[in-house]
Amino acid sequence: MSKVDSSESKIVRLKLSDQVFEKLREMLASGELAAGDMVPSERALMEHFGVGRPAVREALQSMQSKGLITITHGGRSRVNALTAGVAFNQLDDIAKLLLSSEPANIDHLKQVRHILELGTVRIAAQKCTSKDASDLAELIEEQRSHLGNAEAFMKADIAFHTRLASMAANPLIHSITEMMLTWLFEYHSSLLLWSGREETTLKEHGKILEFLKANDVDGAERALEDHLNRSDSNFSSTAKS
Fold first, then answer.
1. Is there a contact between 148 and 172 (Cβ–Cβ < 8 Å)?
2. Which domain range does residue 113 map to?
3. Is the pTM of this model over 0.90?
């Protein structure tokens, strides 16, 4: 008989609350509990699983912390719709910690942004409708209205790129783009050095929009690539403390 690592062969007994959590998660996965459904009462869950109230409450708190349910004090808990946004929100805290503790990851994230957005804009250019173009034009004007207010200008910048991502009609692309841009803008030492570059940003957004309206795939990609390459120089190389 071959030797087995004792640390790998030990059976770990799950806490009761963890077992309840797993059972509830299985109910969500199977569709037994669907988005919008009321979660059974604590008493019903206690009886169903044969456990005490502390185990049920801890399991429900874990479900809420993962965005799976919403607990209403004085009322019944409700099952949340499972979306890409809910999934990526679970990464938010750990991603911010990663960027804060290791500044080099900013450059890695910028590289991911280039790959994702350049691919996305090609899809967007093929699908761009008059409504899409109108929305993007309004966002450019909104961003223009925030000249002199760096934080509001950046938020409007995120809104423009996120709306562009939505044109791909892929909820994963939309959610990843929004989270990625939020992380980039929030966790940088000087945020963006907008001074003197705001008008350039607005012109570049306008140029991207013109190619999108013309359904010019290659032109939209070139315009966005020029925009991203130029905007990269606006970031400093150290993360915020």
1. no
2. 87-232
3. no
Each residue's pLDDT tens digit, 88-136: 776 767 777 777 677 778 888 889 999 999 999 999 999 999 999 999 9
Q: CA-CA distance, 35 to 28, in Å (whole number)?
A: 9
Shared domain for 99 and 40, answered yes or no, is no
Domain C-terminal end among 51, 82, 113? 82
**Quick one: DSSP state of residue 62?**
H
79 secondary structure, DSSP code? E
**DSSP states of 124-181 as a string?**
HHHH--HHHHHHHHHHHHHHHTTTT-HHHHHHHHHHHHHHHHHTT--HHHHHHHHHHH
Q: Which of 132, 101, 131, 98 has the alpha carbon at shortest distance from 112?
A: 98
125 and 211 co-located in one domain: yes
Q: Rounded to an integer, what distance in angstroms lies between the CA atom of residue 154 and that of residue 150?
A: 6
Distance CA 120, CA 212 (A): 12
Instruction: Give me 142's structure tokens.
Output: 């909104």
